[in-house]
Amino acid sequence: MQGYMKAKAVWSGQDARGMGNFDQAVLEINPNNPIVQDLDRMVKFDNESNELENSGLLMYGVASMTSSFNVGDVKGFTQGVMSLMNDQQNEDSSTPKDAEVILIPEIIPEVPV
């Protein structure tokens, strides 16, 4: 939004540098979001964990990118995403399957020719 407002000011002939109130970005957090609730749970359980720090930094990075801001530490952001993806893949492969899928061949009746 900040970029849009500055571009609009330049387009209309105003000085974009004079828009000092747009220099400060605000991160709004929805407390009902499941990710935010999970972060809150982690803070209450162990506020010194690496998982909490990584999750918070990832959420901040995603919010920055969504709002068209640059992520300060791109390498750290991508490592966090890859770590999250690896954790998810490891959870999926180690989780026992509740049910086994059995393929039953479909019986097709013969049609007289």
From TrEMBL:
Q: Which residue windows are transmembrane per the record?
A: none
Q: Chaperone among the record's keywords? A: yes
Task: Give the UniProt keywords, A-Z.
Answer: Chaperone, Stress response
Q: Name one GO molecular function term.
A: ATP binding
Q: Which Pfam families match?
A: HSP90
List, alphabetically, the InterPro entries matched: HSP90_C, Hsp90_fam
Name the UniProt record assigns to this protein: Heat shock protein
Which organism is the protein's source? Seminavis robusta
Family as reported in the entry's similarity comment = Belongs to the heat shock protein 90 family.
